[in-house]
Specification:
The chain is an alpha+beta fold. It folds into 2 domains: about 100 residues, Serine-tRNA synthetase, tRNA binding domain (Helix Hairpins, Orthogonal Bundle), CATH 1.10.287.40; about 300 residues, Bira Bifunctional Protein, Domain 2 (BirA Bifunctional Protein, domain 2). It contains 12 helices and 16 strands. The strands form 4 sheets. Strands 1-9-10-11-14-8-7-2 form an 8-stranded mixed beta sheet. The chain has a 3-stranded antiparallel beta sheet with strand order 3-5-4. It has a 3-stranded mixed beta sheet with strand order 6-12-13, with no helix packed on it. The longest helix is centred in the first third of the chain and has 35 residues. The model has no long low-confidence stretch (mean pLDDT about 95).
């Protein structure tokens, strides 16, 4: 959420900044008009309340002849006050809905553009492998090695679901364990968090009111399914007043995640890339309100994810995401994409975002600085690893001619020392 006072004092800058995300300038004017209307109603309501109190107090000292007139006037003022309060309630709700729909300001460093076609490749790491045998995609590798029950599980649970088994199931867990160890070594507190949430955290995180069609909802319980541990971690300290000495707070959240993939009709319908339920280890940072500090953590989160891809020995590229593709909460965003041989392209494995104070304002998450002033925190998030999506480049990059898959040295301790997995491994 944005600061309305800042918007009122810097209107033209705000319009230009939000226009980079495709937000219309007239909506800024509409918000301010609603804000001024709300303030006017607050002032008039307060005046009526004071007038009513004054009349009520005067009844005590009024004569018997004066009282009926004062009581009538008090009743009339009370009715006007009630009507004004009802108007204020409507206008306040409209204002809150409007400001909740405003995106975060993008960084001056973020490239401008309407969609993912304008994302910029900042650099690439690792050599794209050259195979001297016909490669198999991850679906063929799963079938060859008896690693999945994709057809059977579709009959049980529907499309965009998966069931993997044997070595591949162990590999999925092993990758998460390796990532968790790395995050703990970097000072993160490991949490396993629920995958169910009330509605308010969805507004706090920024899913609502923007992406309701992507979220699973269980009306009988008035509960939603979470699409990322970030959602839970962002509201973990809602309404708290921290001390600057408590910051930064580093969380590594692990949870099952659920997404409807409503906007992905016809895309990646086969295999493990787009599924409704998956596992994710998420990096989440709460830091003080200093642009240099949040930028430092943004680069640190990016570095950790790069190390993870390097430990998995996956060639990857780092994208700077443009203003039209980064989503409402984001101030600045990098995506990391690993090479997928069967598709001859890079596919996203990590999304690394600086949210500044936009989420903290929605959660009312503040801290008292060393100077005694109360400020909003800043938040950042990044994928640690998400599976099964990350398994796709992994098994394809490390496949051998016989269909087995090589395990990189950094991952071998989490796989019981195995150097290869697959049906043909003895």
């Amino acid at each position: 959420m944005l600061d309305i006072k800042f918007i009122a004092e810097n209107t033209e800058w705000v319009k230009k900044s939000l226009a980079r995300k495709g937000f219309p300038a007239e909506k800024v004017d509409e918000l301010l008009a609603k804000y001024y209307e709300m303030n006017k109603l607050k002032t008039s309501s307060q005046a009526l309340a004071e007038e009513k109190n004054k009349l009520s107090n005067s009844i005590k000292t009024a004569t018997a002849d004066e009282r009926p007139l004062i009581i009538a006037q008090s009743k009339q003022v009370g009715e006007r006050f009630k009507a004004e309060q009802e108007k204020l309630s409507v206008v306040q709700t409209e204002f809150e809905d409007m400001i909740l729909r405003m995106p975060n300001y993008p960084s001056a460093e973020s490239p401008d553009g309407p969609d993912d076609s304008a994302n910029v490749v900042r650099y690439k790491v690792g050599e794209i492998p050259q195979f001297d045998f016909p490669i198999r995609d991850h679906i063929e590798l799963m079938a060859l090695n008896d690693w999945s029950e994709m057809e059977r599980i579709a009959h049980v649970s529907g499309a965009r679901t998966y069931a993997i088994k044997n070595d591949l199931a162990q590999l999925e867990i092993a990758i998460h364990m390796m990532v968790m160890d790395k995050l703990r070594q970097n000072g993160f507190t490991l949490l396993t968090v629920p995958s169910i949430t009330k509605e308010k955290p969805l507004f706090n995180q920024g899913y609502l009111p923007f992406a309701r069609d992507e979220i699973y909802y269980m009306p009988a319980d008035d509960i939603y399914l979470s699409g990322t541990a970030e959602l839970i971690l962002n509201s973990l300290h809602a309404d708290e007043l921290l001390n600057e000495a408590d910051l930064p707070i580093l969380y590594a959240g692990f949870s099952p995640c659920y997404r409807r993939e409503a906007g992905a009709a016809g895309k990646d319908t086969r295999g493990l890339i787009r599924v409704h339920q998956f596992f994710k280890t998420e990096q989440f940072v709460i830091c003080n309100n200093d642009p240099a500090e949040s930028e430092k953590w943004h680069q640190k989160l990016l570095k950790i994810s790069e190390e993870i891809l390097q430990d998995l020995e996956l060639p990857y590229q780092v994208l700077e995401v443009c203003t039209g593709d980064m989503g409402a909460p984001k101030y600045r965003q990098y995506d990391l994409e690993a090479w997928v041989p069967s598709q001859n392209c890079y596919r996203e494995t990590h999304s690394c975002s600086n949210i500044t104070e936009w989420q903290a304002r929605r959660t009312n998450l503040r801290y008292r600085g060393n100077d005694g002033k109360v400020k909003y925190c800043q938040t950042l998030n990044n994928t640690g690893i998400a599976t099964p999506r990350a398994l796709v480049p992994f098994v394809e990059i490390h496949q051998q001619a016989d269909g087995s898959v090589k395990i990189p040295p950094k991952l071998q301790p989490y796989m019981g020392g195995k150097k290869f997995i697959g049906k043909n491994v003895r």
